[in-house]
């Protein structure tokens, strides 16, 4: 008599082990994929945070450079005025480049706000640093309003508080 019970029991055992291994491999692959997706999202948010912070910092540095330039111009210190003017030009270039980076990585609404903020701040800089014409008080107030709005939407995009 052939031991069918042993053969069936062995086949079920081997089949169960193979099925368990297959399911375990699928779960590990799924967990690995979820882990990689989560890490990619963390890296993406960290890059956005870095660019957003650099853009806001560059705007502040530009405003300080314009203020320093105006003070040196009032003091009629030609050497310092020239050096401060160069700092304004450098800060302006850094700021404009960072706004361009923001427009590449940010959602459409943040890109638009960053671009509007850039336009108003550039008008202010030209008015203050170039003896140009313009309503510096209006531009200054508008830049402050746009900066607050931009910061709120950047925070929201990063998942932070409003």
Q: How are the secondary structure elements laid out?
A:
Elements: H1 4-74, H2 78-105, H3 108-129, H4 136-157
Summarize the structure.
The chain has a domain at 46-157: Four Helix Bundle (Hemerythrin (Met), subunit A) (Up-down Bundle), CATH 1.20.120. The protein has 4 helices and no strands.
Give an account of the 3D structure.
The chain is rod-shaped and about 115 Å long. The chain is mostly helical. It has 4 helices and no strands. The protein has a domain of 112 residues: Up-down Bundle (Four Helix Bundle (Hemerythrin (Met), subunit A)).
- The number of helical runs is 4
Beta-strand level of the residues, as a percent range? under 5%
Structural class: mainly alpha
Q: Helix content range of the residues, please?
A: over 70%
Q: Kindly provide the name of the CATH class of the domain at 46-157.
A: Mainly Alpha
Order of helices and strands: HHHH
- Looking at the overall shape, the CATH architecture of the domain at 46-157 is Up-down Bundle
Task: Summarize the main sheet.
Answer: none
Q: What is the β-strand count?
A: 0
How many whole angstroms does the radius of gyration measure? Answer: 30 Å
Point out poorly predicted stretches. Answer: none
First and last CA, distance: 79 Å
